[in-house]
Design goal:
Strand content of chain B: under 5%
Structural class of chain B: mainly alpha
Number of domains of chain A: 3
GO biological process, one term (chain A): peptide transport
Oligomer: heterodimer
Shape of chain B: elongated
CATH topology of the largest domain in chain A: Rossmann fold
Distance between the termini of chain A: 20 Å
GO cellular component, one term (chain A): plasma membrane
Distance between the termini of chain B: 43 Å
Order of helices and strands of chain B: HHHHHHHHHHH
Number of domains of chain B: 1
Structural class of chain A: alpha/beta
Radius of gyration of chain A: 27 Å
Number of strands of chain A: 24
Shape of chain A: globular
CATH superfamily of chain B: MetI-like
CATH topology of chain B: MetI-like fold
Number of helices of chain B: 11
InterPro entries (chain A): AAA+_ATPase, ABC_Ni/Peptide_Import, ABC_transporter-like_ATP-bd, ABC_transporter-like_CS, Oligopep_ABC_C, P-loop_NTPase
CATH architecture of chain B: Orthogonal Bundle
CATH class of chain B: Mainly Alpha
Keywords (chain A): ATP-binding, Cell membrane, Membrane, Nucleotide-binding, Transport
Helix content of chain A: 25-40%
GO molecular function (chain A): ATP binding; ATP hydrolysis activity
CATH superfamily of the largest domain in chain A: P-loop containing nucleotide triphosphate hydrolases
Helix content of chain B: 55-70%
Number of helices of chain A: 25
Largest sheet of chain B: none
CATH architecture of the largest domain in chain A: 3-Layer(aba) Sandwich
């Protein structure tokens, strides 16, 4: 990590409203300086100002993180730097790169600068790479564009070299591959290779890991750090995930509603946040270090719409310490203490910084459900899954189909769920967790194995019994917008499960009002359509629909992963409260380990269609016994710079193998960090024998060498 | 994480309701209407179509002649004050005949377009939603109907239809006009089928027909509306073609097609016999197509400039 966290030469760089008069900062001090940037998009319904007066700077070799929720203007401001905004965007303010203004330059001049001076890494590497050219050709194209004297052969050789740098195995062969032949993580590595090809002075990474799994995310962040160290370039990392910046960035800027609302070093922002929004964001995020012990503190409301901003502080409607003045004047970015680079845009910043307003008490912690209201449940098994399998035949040819392989999406999964408990099913994308729950929800005879609900094997049900059983098991989907039919009003949507069971219309309406009230929605909104609600509210509608038949089991398929960070906490708390009040059992599917830690009693970790480790949440998170679980946990970024810096990561190599591959023995051994440390007989065992689940300490583990997990000496949080 | 450790719970009540701060959200229908209103094509089409329909209904009122009347004093006369569009060889008033023919063509067009769209919607949704053998059989039937030359079939079937009234023609035209749209609807339904809200309905135990009726058809309705509108023009054209060759509308009924057939030999010598019905036909079909086109661009955000 570079040491020039605070650049004394930049001491008078503050917000435009408090800029000290005529003594303009010498622009040549900074690599990139953005001054009072405004970006407006004219639209038929009125202009939308996406960026409203953003000023920041990046110095040589510095790592700046820009954090914000969707719609906060973080991407738009960086696209403005690259000159990549659509031509109808109106830009004002100034952008200086190495002392020279970038605004008003011709596209030709900008193109020369892009790649050589500034390069960008996009969120979705598939759409950022041209599908019809090989990866190698695209890298050498980037090279030859800026250095015309470079011969083709030399460019190709350099492309291979770059692929090697970003950690792509077999770079010579892989340079000849097309983008679709690469996995998501490898594509992002290739993007980084293109970005650093011409030794840029500044790399802008726009949500580079958002589309990736957590173990791949850890790899990519590592590569990004390496690329930064090699080229000496400054990096601007734009993300919504506070955890991602905590361990990597030097300085941080938090954006809200098109403005920077707080900026400082990572330690300043994470340990002593002064803007109530930052405080709330940090408190509302489930994180591995605190999850499970404390209740989340929701940040109520939602970000304002930039098309019609009310006067005053845009955060005022959500702020717990709002005062009258906040509603009329928008606070400027004010320096907090000694450090001129640490500032926040809040009228009460002095009170918060001095401790008059206690940061930890800014937000009221929601109380747990009173004991009197808790449902009493007898501990019995409500859902029992044994040896569940789901294989898909892989066929080729359009006229004469022939089977060329099998996708083992679910390959012998067993678990049980008890009344009033939550089982968290965790795994990376493609591990088969969604297929597992869909198989259960079908309530039909599985390909192999057994699914029992309330002790009844679903394979033996008649059609009528199956319909009756659907009352008992309901589902909440990931994306509330996709799971609610946009053409029906909320009352019809929520009442739909009741119509199936022949409930009369009058009772239906009553029940709908009751459940809407239960999930914290105003029953009078029942006649509105889903698109009139915010994301968090829509997910509440989804939950209401699941609860309307008074089920015993609710399957939650990634219920919060489509929601903004600040809204997640409210939904998670609601789910916890409902469980206590109604005695529900949850089957909770998620890829976000912190969320799972927060809500689950038991956890099952899936890898390639199998459960590799299961047990009580405490045991799994505190003391993982399977190398995959351990690697997964160490890959999750924790939004705390001190924890992030002190711990070591176990990086998994490569990507999730395709489920069509036949891996003999243990199917994790191709990526297993423990396998590499084993002696020859140990390796032999991994190669030949399929590990069966067995009890080790408090959890059930499918690993031959779980006892020797200590070899992976890693500092866990 | 120093500040995020355990902390005492203050006695504040958590307000759970999110507040919607936005102004009235724009509904899809309003958005489509707004886009339609800003398209000149739509206005040209809708005004043209409206004028044609009004003319077909009321056009005979100011005219002195009925379409069966024969004016034996003015046979084969050019357009005059007495006969606005002239007369035929046997003294029929072309203006009256054109209006009556237009009425028939419009009725056929306005019925066939929507009828074909409804068939396409139901068949396509069933094939797409049920999948499996249902899908294979339906697709096979669709492909079969598509490869058969429909004009040839019409000609083969025309002896039967000649004995029936012209209403049978509506069903014949609709029966051969739904296949392409049914394939489009089928493809749409197949992707809808994987959407979460359809899955959710299935897991709730909603039966297949209710899912198709409540969830699938409303979600493909925009496509069907476009198809119905575009189908009007196409149906008028097919009817005219058939009647032109003598396989559609039979005497004594008239349609634009029979008028064109009767007037075509005189197109060079006595152009009014041919030009007026032809111009009306072109104008009608053009108006219907313009409306359908504008509707498609307004509904489908990926077509043309309306990318959002």
């Amino acid at each position: 990590m570079t040491e020039n966290l605070i650049d004394p030469a930049a001491s008078n760089e503050t917000s435009p409203s408090v800029r000290p008069g005529p003594t303009q900062p010498n622009p040549s001090n900074h690599l990139l300086e953005v001054r009072d940037l405004h970006v407006t998009f004219p639209q038929p319904g009125g202009a939308v100002t996406a960026v409203r007066g953003v000023s920041y700077h990046v110095d040589q070799g510095e790592f700046l993180g820009i954090v914000g929720e969707s719609g906060s203007g973080k991407s738009v401001s960086s696209l403005a730097v690259m000159g990549l905004l659509p031509s109808n965007a109106k830009i004002s303010g100034d952008i200086l790169f190495e002392g020279k203004s970038l605004l008003g330059r011709s596209d030709k001049e900008m193109s020369k600068l892009r790649g050589e001076g500034i390069s960008i890494i996009f969120q979705d590497p598939l759409s950022a790479l041209t599908p019809v050219y090989t990866i190698g050709a695209q890298i050498s194209e980037a090279l030859r564009l800026h250095d015309r004297k470079l011969s083709k052969a030399a460019a190709n050789a350099r492309a291979v070299e770059l692929l090697k740098v970003v950690g792509i195995p077999n770079p010579e062969r892989r340079a000849q591959a097309f983008p679709h032949e690469f996995s998501g993580g490898m594509r992002q590595r290739a993007m980084i290779a293109i970005a650093i090809a011409n030794n840029p002075r500044l790399i802008i990474a726009d949500e580079p890991t958002t589309a990736l799994d957590v173990t791949i995310q850890a790899q990519i962040l590592e590569v990004l750090q390496k690329a930064k160290d090699m080229t000496g370039a400054a990096v601007v990392l734009i993300t919504h995930d506070l955890g991602v910046v905590a361990g990597n960035a030097d300085r941080l800027a938090v954006m809200y509603a098109g403005r920077i609302v707080e900026t400082g070093t990572v330690d300043q922002v994470f340990h002593a946040p002064s803007m109530p929004y930052t405080v709330g964001l940090l408190r509302s995020m489930p994180n591995l270090a605190t999850a499970g012990h404390t209740r989340l503190v929701p940040l109520e409301g939602r970000p304002p719409q930039l098309s019609n901003l009310a006067p005053g502080c845009p955060f005022a409607p959500r702020c717990p310490v709002v005062i009258e003045a906040c509603r009329s004047t928008e606070p400027p970015l004010t320096v907090i203490g000694e450090d001129p680079l640490n500032s926040a845009a809040c009228l009460r910043v002095a009170e918060i910084a001095s401790g008059q307003l206690d940061r930890t008490k800014l937000y009221p912690v929601p109380e747990p459900v009173a004991t009197a209201e808790r449902a009493l449940v007898a501990p019995e098994t409500v859902l029992d899954v044994a040896g569940l399998e789901r294989h898909f035949p892989l066929s080729k040819g359009s006229v004469f189909k022939r089977t060329i392989g099998t996708v083992r999406a679910v390959d012998g999964v067993s678990f049980d769920l008890r009344t009033g408990q939550t089982l968290g099913l965790v795994g990376e994308s493609g591990c088969g967790k969604s297929t597992t729950v869909m198989e259960i929800l079908e309530l039909t005879k599985p390909q192999a194995g057994q699914v029992s609900i309330n002790g009844r094997d679903v394979a033996t049900l008649t059609a009528r019994e199956r319909k009756a059983l659907r009352k008992e098991i309901q589902v909440v989907f990931q994306d509330p917008m996709a799971s609610l039919d946009p053409r029906l009003p909320v009352q019809d949507l929520v009442a739909e499960p009741l119509t199936v069971h022949g409930v009369p219309a009058k009772d239906r309406l009553e029940k709908v009002r009751a459940v809407l009230d239960l999930v914290g929605l105003d029953p009078s909104m029942a006649s509105r359509y889903p698109h009139e609600f915010s994301g968090g509210q829509r997910q509440r509608i989804g939950i209401a629909r699941a609860l309307v038949t008074d089920p015993k089991i609710v399957v939650l398929d990634e219920p919060v992963s489509a929601l903004d960070v600040s809204i997640q906490a409210g939904v998670i708390n609601l789910l916890q409260d409902l469980q206590e009040k109604l005695g529900l059992s949850y089957l909770f599917v998620a890829h976000d380990l912190a969320v799972v830690r927060q809500i689950s009693d038991n956890v099952a970790v899936m890898y390639l269609g199998r459960i590799v480790e299961s047990g009580p949440a405490e045991a799994i998170f505190e003391n993982p016994q399977h190398p995959y679980t351990k690697a997964l946990l160490s890959a999750v970024p924790v939004p705390d710079p001190t924890v992030e810096r002190s711990r070591t990561r176990i990086l998994l190599e490569g990507d999730l193998p395709s489920p069509t591959e036949d891996i003999t023995g243990c199917n994790f051994r191709t990526r297993c960090p423990l396998y590499k440390l084993m002696d020859a007989p140990g390796k032999e065992q991994c190669r030949t024998q399929d590990p069966q689940p067995r009890a080790v300490q408090n959890s059930v583990v499918a690993c031959h060498h779980a006892e020797r997990i200590g070899l992976l000496a890693a500092g866990m949080p | 994480m120093s500040m995020l450790d355990e902390m005492p719970a203050p006695d504040a009540t958590a307000v759970i309701t999110d507040v919607v701060h936005s102004a009235k959200p724009v509904s899809r229908l309003r958005l489509v209407m707004a886009r339609l209103r800003s398209t000149p094509r739509f206005w040209v089409g809708i005004i043209g179509l409206g004028a044609i329909i009004l003319w077909a209904i009321f056009g005979l009122v100011p005219n002195a002649w009925n379409y069966t009347d024969l004016d034996i004093y003015n046979m084969g006369s050019s357009p005059s004050r007495l006969h606005w569009f002239g007369t035929s060889d046997i003294g029929e008033d072309i203006y009256a005949q054109t209006i009556v023919g237009l009425r028939k063509s419009l009725i056929i067009g306005l019925l066939v377009g929507p009828l074909a769209a409804i068939v396409a919607g139901v068949v396509g949704a069933v094939a797409g939603y049920l999948g499996g053998w249902w899908d294979r059989v339906i697709v096979w039937v669709i492909d079969l109907l598509l490869v058969l030359p429909s004009l040839f079939l019409f000609i083969l079937l025309s002896p039967i239809f000649k004995q029936l009234s012209w209403v049978a023609l509506i069903f014949l035209l609709a029966g051969f006009g739904w296949m392409i749209m049914a394939r489009v609807i089928r493809a749409q339904t197949r992707s809808l089928r994987e959407r979460d809200f359809i899955k959710a309905a299935r897991f709730m135990g909603v039966d297949t027909w209710t899912i198709i009726r409540r969830h699938v058809l409303p979600n493909v309705s925009s496509l069907l509306i476009i198809d119905a509108t575009l189908g009007v023009g196409a149906a008028i054209l097919s009817e005219t073609t058939l009647s032109f060759f003598g396989f559609g509308i039979q005497a004594p009924d008239v349609s634009l097609g029979t008028l064109l057939a009767a007037g075509q030999s005189a197109a060079a010598t006595r152009p009014w016999l041919f030009i007026f019905p032809a111009a009306i036909l072109v104008f009608t079909v053009l108006s219907a197509s313009l409306v359908g086109d504008a509707l498609r661009d307004a509904v489908d955000p990926t077509s043309g400039v309306n990318r959002d």
